[in-house]
Amino acid sequence: MPEIPETLEIHETFEKAETLEKSETLEKIDAFCHVLPRDYAERLFALDGIPAVANLRKRIMNIPALVDLDVRFRQMDEFAGYRQIINLAAPPVEDFGSPALSAEYARIGNDGLAALVAEHPDRFVGFCAAVALNDVDAAVAELDRAVGELGAIGVQIYTHVNGHPLDEQRFEPFWERAAELDLLVQVHPCRNSSWPDYPTEERSRYEIWWTFGWEYDLSAFMARIVFGGVLERHPGLKLLIHHGGSMIPHFSGRVGPGWDQLGSRTPDHQREDVTGYPLTKRPLDYFKMFYADTALFGAPHALRCALEFFGPDRVLFGSDSPYDPEKGPGYIRSGIADLAAMDLTEAERAAVFSGNVRRLAGSRLPAPAAVR
């Protein structure tokens, strides 16, 4: 009967996922998850009249693991050998107001993240710093402080800065410094309901701005980084794209043969729209230079696509915890289950769970022997 092999396969995958969850020898480093240090959260929620903060308060008020470490640690205890690289939960600090205020909150947040890592090294293997890119000079200075004084292993940025794309020339000093420091650069989407789905409307409906808009945001960011020449100028950048590399793996035919024809059908009066930085490779080759995480929320078919596009050496285990329906462990569990369902060698699976992020972060991460 055709149902029997399918049932057996599901059962075997479940058993494999459970084995991976409980494995004491398999190190699992969550390369993309969020937290709010308590002091940062208290100061943040004291801000009045800022829509981004009001939206955050509403969205996280029932997610205690963002702030309550006892809750968070109980959730983490479900998974043997599991630790996290933490960053600040959205929204970006640029949304808080003036460049000076944004920079202040980046400093407060980074101090809080560094303290969490120092106080709980058995839980948090490192942190990615926040920077306020509405003042690029201040962002570079804070990046240097976070890495040099606080021990940050990387930096988290967003797909735009107050609506400005990051291939604008004014952001070049940031890209130069991130490349010089050889940092992991986490890229998080950034969009809200004020970005309508249709030109005739004023707001996005049904949270389309989140479900699909964030993925478009990530993909548009990648495209601007490619065609704006950021990767051409800085090929060593380690850009970790949230949510499995977003749309790019799934539309690689359009990204590849499609963009190979860029400009061939463009009217002369629109040539400026398709003229970018001089590239020395196919657009597709640059897109393969990004890294992706596994935060696909229980969609093994999507993870398989990401692994096939980027390769197992460019995919990092990342959960997006604690934004799952269980408010913490759900996406960790589904991420492990998705990886259990993949046809990977033991070496490839170990690389995705921790080896790749260790290679990218190098000596900034503590030795594996410290794993619980």
Give me the side-by-side strand order of the main sheet. 1-2-3-4-5-6-7-8
Distance between the termini: 45 Å
Q: Outline, from the CA principal axes?
A: globular
Strand/helix succession = HEHHHEHEHEHEHHHEHHEHEHH
Q: Tally the helices.
A: 15
Overall mean pLDDT stands at: 93
Estimate percent helicity: 40-55%
Low-pLDDT stretches: none
Query: Largest sheet, if any?
Result: 8 strands, parallel
Radius of gyration: 20 Å
Strand element count: 8
Name the structural class: alpha/beta
Write up what this structure looks like.
This protein has 372 residues and is an alpha/beta fold. It is 44% helix and 11% strand. Strands 1-2-3-4-5-6-7-8 form an eight-stranded parallel sheet. Strand 3 (124-130), helix 6 and strand 4 (154-158) form a beta-alpha-beta unit. The model has no long low-confidence stretch (mean pLDDT 93).
